[in-house]
């Protein structure tokens, strides 16, 4: 069973571009702190469509710490690939394009009751919507000389979510049903996404309510010697549906094109 487009369709029908499973990482994000977050303003760079490595994990040698950035390949604000501070970015989800209904299938019970409205960013790119994922593809090349990552899934992304509704991510298995529910704010599970080296992951994202959601993400990693690498928390903003379109007047917190060394 797969997700169906266009918008206002039911989750679970036949989809012209099937949601394919992307291998490489497993994990779950725990509960949402529900709040009246809809009044949160847009940030400097509003991304409405295109490819985005939302959680781009690298090592910042100047800070001697891991660093999260947004790798913006949408071309909406500048050509080419741009690295941006998460605090400068809003992921804006078009309400009509993303609107779907939960199907009457037990496999999708985690999304809500059958017929409930949800707002979905699909695992396979829809050119009219943002396509956010996460990546560790650049991490190994930015580590200090002699430092290597442990095997398995040595990178952890600790996540908390604040917003008006539930947030879920999942991938579509070979039979079309949901697998790899990386984010599930309704199940009370741990708030960690484990990620392997050189991984690039996309999933379906769903939001149960319109409004603004803030994700606070903190990276960690294990080295081959058993040492731990850490980094500061970063704030990510999703706006689902109509909302403020004028960004704040404060300048971006970091130059958008300067990667860590």
In short:
With 261 residues, the protein is mainly beta. The protein has 2 helices and 19 strands.
Task: Produce the secondary structure layout.
Blueprint: E1 9-10, E2 32-34, E3 45-47, E4 50-60, E5 65-72, E6 82-84, E7 89-93, H1 95-98, E8 99-101, E9 117-121, E10 130-135, H2 139-142, E11 155-163, E12 167-172, E13 178-184, E14 192-195, E15 200-202, E16 204-207, E17 211-222, E18 228-230, E19 234-240
Parallel strand pairs: 1-8, 2-11, 3-7, 4-10, 7-19
Antiparallel strand pairs: 4-5, 5-6, 8-9, 9-16, 10-15, 11-14, 11-17, 12-13, 12-16, 17-18, 17-19
Structural class: mainly beta
Q: Which descriptor suits the 3D outline? A: globular
Mean pLDDT over the full residue set: 84
Distance between the termini: 44 Å
Radius of gyration: 18 Å
One letter per element, helices H and strands E, the order comes to EEEEEEEHEEEHEEEEEEEEE
Helix content: under 10%
How many helical stretches?
Answer: 2
- Please count the beta strands (DSSP E, at least 2 residues each): 19
**What summary fits the major beta sheet?**
8 strands, mixed
Strand content: 35-45%
Low-confidence stretches: 1-30, 245-250, 253-261
């Amino acid at each position: 069973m797969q997700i169906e487009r266009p918008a206002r369709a039911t989750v679970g029908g036949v989809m012209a571009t099937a949601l394919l499973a992307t291998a490489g990482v497993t994990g779950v994000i725990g509960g949402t702190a529900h709040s009246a977050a809809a009044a949160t303003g847009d940030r400097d760079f509003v991304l409405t469509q295109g490819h985005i490595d939302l959680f781009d994990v690298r090592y910042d040698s100047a800070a001697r710490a891991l660093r999260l950035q947004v790798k913006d390949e949408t071309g909406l604000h500048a050509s080419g690939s741009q690295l941006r501070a998460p605090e400068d970015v809003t992921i804006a989800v078009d309400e009509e394009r993303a609107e779907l209904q939960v199907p009457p299938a037990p496999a999708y019970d985690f999304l809500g009751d059958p017929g409930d409205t949800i707002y979905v960013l699909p695992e396979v790119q829809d050119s009219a919507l943002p396509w956010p994922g996460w990546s560790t593809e650049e991490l190994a090349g930015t580590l200090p000389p002699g430092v290597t990552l442990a095997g398995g899934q040595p990178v952890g992304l600790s996540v908390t979510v604040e917003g008006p509704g539930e947030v879920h991510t999942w991938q579509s298995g070979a039979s079309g049903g949901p697998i790899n529910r990386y984010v599930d704010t309704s199940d009370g599970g741990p708030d960690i996404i484990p990620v392997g080296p050189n991984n690039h992951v996309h999933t379906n994202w769903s939001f149960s309510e319109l409004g603004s959601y803030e994700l606070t993400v903190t990276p960690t990693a294990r080295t081959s010697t058993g040492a731990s690498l850490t980094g500061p928390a970063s704030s990510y903003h999703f706006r689902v549906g109509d909302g403020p379109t004028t960004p704040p007047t404060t300048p971006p917190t970091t130059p958008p094109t300067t990667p860590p060394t």
